[in-house]
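User: My collaborator and I are trying to settle a disagreement about how two of our proteins should look. Neither of us wants to argue from intuition anymore, so we agreed to look at predicted structures for both before our next call. Could you fold the first one, then the second, and keep them clearly separated?

Assistant: That sounds like a sensible way to settle it. I'll keep them separate. The first protein:
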Amino acid sequence: MAVPTNKRTTLADLLAIEDHDRLEIIGGEIVEKAMPSWRHARAETKYGEILAPFNRKPGGPRGPGGWWIGTEVHVGYGAEMYCHDVAGWRRDRVPEMPDDFPVAIRPDWVCEIVSPKHEKRDFVTKPQTLHAAEVPYYWILHPEEQMLIIQRWTAKGYLTILSASAGQTVRAQPFDAIEIRVGELFGDDDEAG
């Protein structure tokens, strides 16, 4: 749902809407985030499980740590505001959990899970904004196609450094300290290790 306006929407305009949890500001308009499919919701949950070794203080027996990782995080980029499916901040750069609304500190990693009919946002619109903000890593997870695309920031644009599909095991930057069985991101609990 796009709310037509004659002026660029501001954060104050969005906050004036009673139920604004699933809203974003894209291209100066308030846009409703796509309702997640079962596959989309499952992928978001699996990210939490798979990346849990990073989502804690550095060191310790349960993994490398060093990140703040959250789902459905609203982040502001100037006039734009996205509700990222999954986003992370390195704790060495951001020592306190970023919990303002929207988060004003750019993430170190963002993952968008593609929703049908919203591919342009995930493959074109959001990467352009994230690149301008110098977000170091952008992941795109496509549940219907069962593929994972890893992109790294360069001055000329995002560079795809890894493409993988279910059945493959990868070490994906910036979380290359662990192996990720790509099928698990799509909910394949039975994928061989």
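The second protein, kept apart from the first:
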Amino acid sequence: MLNFLKKQTGFSILEIVVAIFIIVMGMVGVLSLITQNIQVQYINKNNLIASQLAQEGLELARNKRDKNWLEGNDWIFSITPGNYKMDYTGYIGIVSGIEETRLQQSNEVGREGYYWYGGTVNTIFYRLITTSQASPESLTVSCLIQWADRGQTYQYVADTVLYNWK
């Protein structure tokens, strides 16, 4: 009978502990990868929003230049060198720094999801549009988007040059 018990095959407690340890280590690695992936996805989402807001800021300055031409004003009227906040409604405000430029979102029907200065919900994004005159016939426009997330401040900058080619 003793001989029969010695010949039985099976797992020892040590083999089971080692197998569980290997499985747990693999799970910890996968969980760590999933957590890091979610964080990177959130950062990338905000970078994409910031890049689009910066491009919109440049387009707003370009639109103002074109509107000045149509109205018969000087091409840099109301976008002379300085710091501005602008939105898609045509609003232009002179500001002293980025802390005055927090974008908002609206919950109004037809305007939900838009970033502007007349909304009801503050966003994490600030947009500062800076203009400087490079020459009498050109204007450098820089759009700085800034936001804070999890204790870290991020920035995205886009630049262009507008010309008085008319």
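Some points you might bring to the call about the second protein. Residues 13-163 form one domain. The first strand starts at residue 82 and ends at 86.
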